[in-house]
Write a structure and sequence with these properties.
Low-confidence stretches: none
CATH architecture of the largest domain: 3-Layer(aba) Sandwich
Order of helices and strands: EHEHEHEEEHEHEHEEHEHHHHH
Largest sheet: 6 strands, mixed
Radius of gyration: 20 Å
CATH topology of the largest domain: D-Maltodextrin-Binding Protein, domain 2
Strand content: 15-25%
Distance between the termini: 27 Å
CATH superfamily of the largest domain: Periplasmic binding protein-like II
Strand order of the largest sheet: 8-7-6-9-5-10
Helix content: 25-40%
Number of helices: 12
CATH class of the largest domain: Alpha Beta
Shape: globular
Mean pLDDT: 94
Length: 330
């Protein structure tokens, strides 16, 4: 008899085959829901709405480090990005280099979110700009934030101001009240207010003129491809059904393989027409997402370190604490 489980994630090409039923989880009948990540993480942290859910890596690790053991992590990493390369600044802010962020007013949707964690980590390790060197302004309210569910308090020595509810990161960037912002998305949701496309406003630009080149530089230097979201499973289910975690990871690996094949099918069309250079085929054939702990160890260790360095976790977590035991060697 199959287990009936609820699952929620923000569907993308790498996870869609699980949602549409092309990929099955052995021994499981899934009831899927597509939920935007910001809302989903808040709901799961606050109410534990789903048996399996996509989850902010930073918020999950923060909750776990503070003793919240309702969930166990699954090394299914649905999104990655070189977040620091997307920092936005006002053209009149005087910010020309990352070092110029010292003493500036910087907006962030939520201080503890994973994209912000990676951005501050890069600023500190690459350019010596520490969290306490900036004055932070956070958009999400305690009632509708991941931090509200995990007991967030500004780290010692760091100033984090709450943006009034009649304003947002977007409005404060446009008015000049903020000099810069990090991990800006611009899509209003239940928990977010900003809904302006700042990237195409004439008074605003990216800190790094060539966003892709900075991401490539960081990757070549550090070997870190920042992970944004993972997945969690109710701990009681993982303990009662030891096979479950592995079967879930296996299914999402199959889904990622389908997505990679479909991507290459599309690319092959352009290769065949001569619109793409033949030497690009190898790069495009490289899987964009690799699940598993072992294959992502350096990136995961960096995230655990950043959480402690930035005062968001009281101690550094080990991978064996974060993820289901059966998945550690994957």
């Amino acid at each position: 008899m199959k287990l009936n489980l609820s699952i929620a994630f923000a569907a993308n090409p790498r996870t869609w085959p699980v949602l549409d039923g092309r990929v099955k989880v052995e021994g499981v009948e899934l009831t899927p829901s597509v939920v935007g990540p910001s809302e989903l993480f808040w709901r799961q942290l606050k109410f534990a709405d789903f048996d399996v859910a996509e989850m902010s890596m930073s918020s999950y690790m923060i909750a776990l480090s503070k003793g919240d053991d309702r969930f166990v992590g699954l090394p299914i990493f649905t999104t990655r990005r070189f977040f620091h390369s997307h920092i936005l600044v006002r053209r009149d802010s005087g910010i020309e280099r990352p070092e110029d962020l010292r003493g500036k007013r910087v907006g962030v949707t939520e201080y503890q979110q994973t994209g912000a964690l990676w951005t501050r980590g890069a600023l500190e390790h690459e350019w010596g700009v520490r969290s306490k060197d900036c004055e932070w302004f956070m958009e999400r309210t305690p009632e509708l934030s991941h931090g509200g569910a995990t007991g967030f308090r500004p780290p010692e020595g760091v100033t984090v101001n709450q943006i009034p509810t009649d304003k947002s990161v977007a409005t404060m960037m446009l008015s000049g009240e903020l000099h810069a912002c990090i991990h800006y998305r611009g899509h209003a949701t239940i928990v977010n207010r900003s809904n302006v496309d700042l990237k195409n406003r004439p008074e605003i630009r990216t800190l790094f003129p060539d966003v892709a080149a900075e991401g490539a530089r960081y990757w070549r230097k550090t070997g870190i491809h920042p992970i944004n979201h993972g997945m969690v499973l109710r701990r009681e289910l993982a303990e009662k059904h030891p096979w479950l975690a592995l079967n879930l990871v296996k299914a999402f690996n199959e889904a990622a393989a389908i997505a990679d094949a479909e991507r290459m099918e599309h690319c092959d069309y352009h290769f065949d027409t001569g619109l793409l250079p033949a030497e690009a085929r190898k790069a495009l054939a490289t899987p964009l997402v690799r699940h598993g702990v072992a294959s992502n160890r350096k990136t995961l260790d960096a995230a655990a370190l950043h959480l402690v360095e930035q005062g968001l976790a009281p101690r550094r977590l080990e991978m064996e604490e974060i993820f289901a035991k059966s998945t550690i060697e994957l």
